[in-house]
Specification:
Blueprint (H helix, E strand, L loop, with lengths): L6 E7 L4 E8 L4 E5 L9 H7 L4 E5 L16 H14 L4 E6 L1 H12 L4 E7 L22 H8 L15 H18 L20 E6 L7 H10 L3 E6 L6 H4 L1 H12 L4 E3 L4 E3 L3
Parallel strand pairs: 3-4, 3-5, 5-6, 6-7, 7-8
Antiparallel strand pairs: 1-2, 2-4, 9-10
């Protein structure tokens, strides 16, 4: 079996042993991938490319896919602590890649402790509110039609279409489960943590902020503002992509991440210590 082949298992994470469905593959530097609110659906081509860059660990957040829903894990803040425990279990400091909701979780992790992070990649991340109550940072997806939401989220809205009559019941159950979990985490307050913005100065780790040029949920101007608020961040846009570049431009996104990773110190995976290569 090739080293970059993906496999899926359910295993316990954290002090209370929360059982998470986790996709893994690849060898080398640890990479933690944190998925957006649509879950891991459509992410396989990107994860396969990411697994050529290092050892990928991609958990389904609590409540998504086949992961548990612990009664005491009800917020992004709660999940951030769970994933800090997961980072401790990896062989070396990881590159953390978060898309949308996953980027929000990654930021909550980084403001608490970046000790086990080698670098941070935020892809069309939400999580921070910059504007006033009367000015939106994000489009209100709960007030829009399905067609309008698809246009906001994708450069090519046809990618959002689901053939419900011909979709297996088990997959429909996952779609419903993911939407319920996303709403529980994102509805109130909407797509942000009220105090996260004032803590961004604590993200003391190299950060690449990557943004789909056609993102109509969190526009590129928001992404640039987020990058400017982080101490060690760069900002780039990705053509031909909306809010989910990992689905619309998996090869280009992986190439951008590869270039970013090449600027980071090389970890000694066996000992769990970083050795400087430069």
């Amino acid at each position: 079996m090739p080293a970059d082949t993906l496999s899926t298992a359910v295993r316990p994470v954290g002090g209370k042993g929360t059982r998470l469905e986790i996709v893994e593959g690849g060898t080398g530097r640890p990479i933690l991938f944190l998925h957006p609110g649509i879950g891991l659906r459509g992410a396989t081509p990107f994860l396969e490319r990411l697994a050529k860059l290092g050892r990928v660990t991609a958990p389904a957040h609590p409540g998504f896919h086949g992961s548990d829903v612990p009664p005491d894990t009800t917020s992004v803040d709660d999940i951030s602590y769970l994933y800090l425990d997961l980072l401790e279990s990896l062989e070396a400091p990881a590159v953390v890649v978060g898309v949308s909701l996953g980027g929000w979780i990654a930021l909550e992790m980084a403001v608490k402790s970046a000790r086990r992070m080698a670098g941070l990649v935020l892809v069309d991340s939400v999580g921070v509110r910059f504007n006033t109550r009367t000015v939106q940072d994000f489009a209100d997806i709960y007030a829009l039609s399905s067609a309008e939401i698809d246009k906001r989220l994708y450069h090519d809205p046809s990618l959002a279409r689901i053939d419900y009559p011909n979709t297996p019941p088990a997959e429909l159950e996952v779609i419903a489960r993911n939407r319920e979990a996303e709403t529980r985490l994102s509805w109130s307050p909407y797509l942000h943590s009220p105090h996260l913005g004032q803590r961004l100065h604590r993200v003391d780790v190299p950060t690449s902020v990557l943004w789909g040029e056609s993102d109509g949920l969190a526009p590129p101007a928001y992404g640039k503002r987020l990058a400017d608020a982080l101490p060690r961040a760069t900002f780039e846009t990705i053509p031909g992509a909306g809010h989910f570049p990992h689905i619309e431009q998996p090869e280009e996104l992986a190439a951008r991440i590869a270039r970013f990773m090449a600027t980071l110190p090389v970890p000694d995976v066996a000992s769990g210590r970083k050795e400087m290569s430069r």
